[in-house]
Structures are given as C-alpha cells and as structure tokens.
Amino acid sequence: MSYKGLDQSPKRIIFTSVISTLIAATMVIILISSYGCGGGNGPSNLPNGTPSMNQVLQGRAILTSFGCVDCHNRGVNNPSDSNWLAGYIPNPTGAGKFQIGPFTTYAANLTPDKTTGIGGYTDQQIYNALRYGLDPASTPSVVITSTTPGQGNFPSTPHYLAPPMPWPSTRNMSDNDLWAIVAYLKYGIKPVSNSVPASQGPPNFWASSYTSSAIGPYPLPSYPAGNEQFTP
Ligand code: HEC
152 with 227: CB under 8 angstroms? Predict the structure, then answer.
C-alpha cells in the first residue's frame, strides 16, 4: 500500500504555507479592525467591544434616576421627548443654563450627534468625563491609571468640565455603571442636532474649584471610614 496523500511535493508545501499565511493575515486584519477604532458608531472601547441591550437598559435606568435630565433635558424625564438629552435649548425657565460667579455655563448635548453632541468622542473620552471630570473636547482618548496630574496619563493641566456638572458624584460609580451610561448615550439614543453655546470658565479650567478639600477624596477611603459602622 502506498500513502499518496502524505506524499507532499515541495510545490504543494509552498502553496499550503502561502494559503495559511494569507488566512493568518486576514485574521489579523479582522482583529485590528474590530478593536482599532474608537469613535463614532463603530466598534467601541466598551469593555466587551460592543454595547449590549442590557448595558443600554442599565444606562437608561441610571440616567433617568440620577437627575441628569434636570440639566440635560430641561427638567423633563421622558425619553419620548424629541429633544431627549439634547442639552440646553433656550426656554422660558432657563433650565440648562447656569450662572457660576462671572461665568455662564450650559448643559451639553449628550446625544450621539457627531457635530453638536458627543458622537465625535470615543467611549473612553465619555468614560473619562464621568470618572475624572475631564472635558472630552480637550482631553485625549487614553486609559487613565492615576489621579495625580502628569501621572498615569492623567493630564498635567486637567481641563475639567464646568460646574454644575456633578462629576464629583459620578466618579464614585462602579465601572460597570459608568460603561452602561456610556453605552446608553452613544449607542442607545437618537442623535439630535442642537448646538449648545460653549460654557465659559476660568483660565485654569476650574482646577481650583475641584480640590479634594472642596469635593472630597478620590477614591473614597475604604469602608468603614471615620463616621461609618456596619450594624446589621
Ligand atoms: C446640575 C446640572 C447637571 C447635571 C445634574 C448633570 N450634568 Fe452633565 N453637564 C452639565 C453641564 C453644565 C455640562 C457642560 C460642562 C462644560 O461645558 O464644561 C455637562 C457636561 C456633561 C458631559 C460632557 C459632554 C461634553 O460634550 O463635553 C457629559 C458626558 C455629561 N454632562 C453627562 C452627564 C450625566 C451622565 C449626568 C447624570 C449622571 C449628568 N451629566 C448630570 C450639567 C449637569
């Protein structure tokens, strides 16, 4: 008996290795294209790569119970609103427009509109806004591993979001909750074109307003801290 099938000629070996190189190259390209891009509606920086319906619903629940709409939807908590989360729109009560000392600030358009909303920012930039208060318009899309300016990708001159954006509270949310908010805003609502005026602010981008004595420590001290006790 002869085993012709196992008898590989040099030509066939070259052919086989060319094919397997091509397959490997294609797989690398597929991998790069699914993880490489961050902004817009493409594959994201979300921990699982793509947003899930559960994540979007979790984000929706947080957004509609945390008071985000007081500022970002003129006080109306209703996702059927045709301007849902489109930020400040001139209105009789002035909702979404704030006077902070000499500066006027405006609640941002949180819809995924690419030019007037947050659609042009990466998921990581929105996450960094909620975790560290960093303005996505002037903070690069990087993973931050420190809260000391200049270290671990934390900008040496941080540009903080203007008050009264309550990021000193959102920064204490779990990663899971923050990514859910990002998923809802970027992949769970309709884009609305609404140009919100730029907020005014001091030259130091509010750095002196956001000292830890003013807004508390981050991360929080471990439990139980001084005035806490566990009494089940
Ligand atoms: C008390 C009012 C207020 C509340 C409540 C509030 N925000 Fe904001 N938010 C603002 C203001 C004002 C800005 C604009 C800051 C600036 O221009 O620097 C802003 C900016 C943002 C930005 C940055 C958008 C951009 O394009 O720069 C995000 C993201 C955001 N808010 C998300 C949220 C989420 C999520 C919640 C609820 C968990 C929330 N905000 C609650 C007032 C508020």
Answer: no
